[in-house]
């Protein structure tokens, strides 16, 4: 090959290389799926409702406007409204919250996201298996396989799924799988200023989650649905739905 | 488009996922299952009185079954991937079985039964017609032109077996549609073991009413007298099935009211506000109680033939309105409230969109067009021309 031919080929190869890499999953050579079992710890007592997590998630995962992989709810529970608390989440809490309409009662924020259920109803109902649980416990959607039938959206008890209008496929929190398999934490955990959200590796004996679970009372959302949720909440009030 | 919301919905819940097309889907499959079960009354249970509706019921079932998957296809985000349900079905998903149940019912039951029942007619038509019709009928014979008495007896026997297999298949077809909804534990409006049973009986009601109306309409259009013994019997079965269907629905309702679990307050509010008109007024009062009362009248009071016929027409139409409202209330109603039980959203139906009203209207008319073609090709009424049978075993 002459020098002239090489100079012509190099830019073409550079352009093509990008496309070749686009079709392959991101490499994580030091990551072994069977050594992890991912979950999340939410310390409600620390959440200030700043919405940083929502913004970070939208930026990191290109979440379209009006849809949410994570969001924050504000609860106001007055003594006589335990059964019917006042809840709001303007724009998913992305830009924080305006002052409450009514003063008083118990006020707190609850961050929500996919609960990464081990027995996830969304996985169960997917007609083609496009939604699946990875060996390290993350519920993912194969975007190239999903039919867009929306059955999984109906089956999720927590309202965590949506149909991405640009791809017409089911979309949800991936627990920033592209990050955690590289040893990073999720985008929401990364930016949380109070440490409300903590990524937890339940298979790693050195993970502080074990110590926390041993010494604190935690709860999952809608435990009666027996989805084996791996999103553990500390300080969860009985009024939270 | 801003969707009005009352109270609190999880942010991803505001937009409804399943539209009017998904309302249409159980409505159409219900008509299929119901029409087939009516046909089986004559074939398996030897209810001779309903014989005039037998073939019409089969053709009606086929016409509606051909259209049934279309609303689903139009609703999918990626219809081009729908074939994956056959290639890599996910065994734990109720929906993944759709393709197999549908194909089984279409090819192994309905088409086979129609072909066996019409085989003699097709052979005769392939000999008596000319041009493209002759070619078409010759193709439809599938090369089986033997219409000897022995051969027809085999057709009859095999047809009977297919119908016997067809009855549980029809139950399966629609029961499984009910299961798709009834097995969603996240949604208390749907989650009920009664759902498949209610779907089966409501299917029977809608299918029987459709065939009854079509029989009367087609006979009127043809200027033929209506066999009142037949229509009276069909109406009697409609009445009995309706009583069972209504009882099951009331059982479900009473159970929910009495148990009053955590979702009850929210669902109760919805039924008294957003769903009041489609549920209480259209489905229960207009579409269920009224036709049941009308049909009961014909059972207990001696009425003239004309009056009975008019009552059957009104009751049949109201029944179809009621069953459509039931499908609407299940599918749309089940998405109007938040799974947090703290709020309600609104269904905004598009007009000229992929899942809009116009599409729904076209899809509702399409089975009638198919039925018209089928009736033209395979007339369901007794022949008027002379039959020339070919001999030979």
Task: Give the key terms.
heterodimer, A: 241 residues, alpha+beta, Alpha-Beta Plaits, four-stranded mixed β-sheet, three-stranded antiparallel β-sheet, 23% helix, globular, B: 393 residues, mainly alpha, two-stranded antiparallel ribbon, disordered C terminus
Summary of the model, kept short:
The complex is a heterodimer of chains A (241) and B (393). Chain A contains seven helices and eleven strands.
How would you explain this protein's 3D organization?
The complex is a heterodimer of chains A (241) and B (393). With 241 residues, chain A is of the alpha+beta class. Chain A has seven helices and eleven strands. In chain A, the strands form four sheets. Chain A has a four-stranded mixed β-sheet with strand order 9-1-11-10, with no helix packed on it. A three-stranded antiparallel β-sheet of chain A has the order 3-2-4, with helices on one face. In chain A, strand 7 (162-164) and strand 8 form a beta hairpin. Chain A is globular and about 85 Å long. Chain B has one domain. Chain B has helices at residues 20-43, 51-67, 69-75, 84-87, 98-128, 131-140, 149-182, 195-222, 228-259, 264-272, 276-300, 305-331, 333-336, 357-377; strands at 6-7, 343-344. The termini of chain B are far apart. At the A-B interface, strand 3, helix 3 and helix 4 of A face loops of B.
Per-chain topology:
The complex is a heterodimer of chains A (241) and B (393).
Chain A: H1 3-22, E1 38-43, H2 52-61, E2 70-77, E3 86-88, E4 106-113, H3 121-125, E5 131-133, E6 139-141, H4 151-155, E7 162-164, E8 169-171, H5 177-180, H6 187-191, E9 197-201, H7 209-215, E10 218-219, E11 231-234
Parallel strand pairs in A: 1-11
Antiparallel strand pairs in A: 1-9, 2-3, 2-4, 5-6, 7-8, 10-11
Chain B: E1 6-7, H1 20-43, H2 51-67, H3 69-75, H4 84-87, H5 98-128, H6 131-140, H7 149-182, H8 195-222, H9 228-259, H10 264-272, H11 276-300, H12 305-331, H13 333-336, E2 343-344, H14 357-377
Antiparallel strand pairs in B: 1-2
